[in-house]
Amino acid sequence: MTAILEPDGAQRAVLQAMLHGSVAFADPEGLDSHIRSSANEFAVVIGPSVASHAAADLAQWARVHRPDLGVILLRHEVDSNALALALRSGMREVVAARDLAGITTAVQRARSVANAIGQTMMDEAQAAAETVRAEVVAQAAQAAAVAQAEAEAPRGRVITVFSTKGGVGKSLVSTNLGVALANKGRSVCLVDLDVNSGDVAIMLQLTPSRTINDLATFSGVIDAEGITSILTRHSDNLSVVAAPVRLDSPDQASVEDIGKLLDALRRMVDFVVVDTSGVFDDHALCALDRSDLIVLVGTLDIPSLKALKLATSTLEVLNFPKSTWRFVLNRADGKVGLTIDEFEKTLGLKADTSLVSSREVLAAVNRGEALVSAYPNHTNSKALVAFSDSVASAVSADDIDEGTPSGRRSSGSRLRLRRA
């Protein structure tokens, strides 16, 4: 369709009669409204009565906003001024007002140019759409590849050391288990979840600059890079996520943060050894839910036996397979009127390893050194190293009975415990 702008009624009628199917306007406002609402308009014929500045304004607008719209200027005299005006403002052609054939030809050329521009724009839009589609497909393929790589990546094993009674040597077992595994060339991360009184760092003579509570500053984005920033290095193969060094820390790591931490560490190291507090709190349950093995620690006395009996009963209620439990009996040589057989029979659980009372144990703790490193030939050191070998063999070979590790269970155990 062709639009005509001509204030003179007689001239407007001549042009409209000559250009069949055209629409004519006497003022720029009517033409402007028409052009903006008619996407299929391809030519505007500006009559000789239209002022030069108005014609230039229309052409400049069309050049920017509607490059497919051909502006044809009619003048009684096609002189240098008219040609210069057309050149500056981006008009398509200048034609003498009396040259009726020239006007018709100019309109036809405007139609051809508009069709070509429209086809080019369509081709560009199609090419852009194909590019976007290809990028989406590539991103989806990349995301699938990353997900597959993560799924196929070697997954570290989580070993949680637990007891419902303090002072039984839980941290001693945790630190020496971590060091013994690291000494065999395995990458290990010790996570101290006893957020109120954790001793892992001090037992290894470490001074952490960042602790587990720094997870709260990550805004839920807990990845390998962020985790690395809060690790305290003990050796080439052993690092520690330390417990808070202050009880009045303004930031507290949430259970969700700790869950993300343990999940990420499984992809970063061979073994994650978790030292817990002496209660079934949310932090302990978060670790237990993700554990491949649960190491229970007790001492040869009635209070410890009672606490362990309560712990094992609770683990059974929460459906943690007994095959994933391991039991370390500390100070098993105590002459306290209770034998190892009586302890095991009452508990219903055989000790996987036993440790004896020894001043070297306390000496190693006071020196901030693992017993297996400070006194490698000590009876307890040999027992702990053998225990670490059996633990590594069990979880690495996936030969734990009853199928999948408890680490694949949902966190519903917390709700079950709270309701109980």
From TrEMBL:
Keyword list, A-Z: ATP-binding, Nucleotide-binding
Q: What domain of life?
A: Bacteria
> Residues annotated as region Disordered?
398-420
* InterPro entries in the record: P-loop_NTPase, ParA/MinD_ATPase, YlxH/NBP35
PANTHER family in the cross-refs: SEPTUM SITE-DETERMINING PROTEIN MIND HOMOLOG, CHLOROPLASTIC-RELATED, SLR0110 PROTEIN
The protein, known as = P-loop NTPase
